[in-house]
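Most newcomers find our protein records easier to grasp once they have seen one. Each record describes a single protein and holds just a pair of labelled lines. A learned vocabulary of local backbone shapes supplies the integers on the structure line. Nothing more is needed to start thinking about how sequence determines fold. The record below serves as our worked example for the rest of this section.
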Amino acid sequence: MLLSDLSWEVYSMLDFPGVPEVVEDGKTFIENAVKKATAVAAHLKAWTIADDSGLMVDALDGAPGVLSARFAGEERDDAKNNEKLLKLLAGVPQEERTARFCSALAFVSPAGEVWTTEGYCNGLITFAPRGENGFGYDPLFLLPELGLTMAELTDEQKNQISHRAMAMRNFRAYLATKFENQ
């Protein structure tokens, strides 16, 4: 986990089964992350971090965007999402298949103070899935500088370069500044 070395006690939503589910209906990743973190912080009366993330493809005007998990329907099916993406990009040449993963983080205090950041990872969409690691669009997301898809990376490699890793670096820098005397 990207926060495991901190002196803070970090919990998962799995540790709090009574927290109500938050509908992700924002127009941006930041809006969804803030909505989730704010609702959970108010419910638990505790500092809360939430994220929203997804894929933005330039040739599709930023789609799937905030609908990344539900791109092919409400059932959140990775294979169907990937199939739909490839179908929509049929005939688009490799150099025009530019895309980025985005991860938005929101950190909210029990009093409602909000801090946000985003992290990005740029790449290209392949013509066919490659790799067995990861989830979602990872098998289609090529990192040109490495010649590998996200699904061909180890967890350690991914935790160095992914959109979530970039957002988490920003968050860790914020924590070091905001809570340096605590």
Summary: The domain at 13-178 is CATH 3.90.950.10 (Maf protein). The longest strand covers residues 114-125.
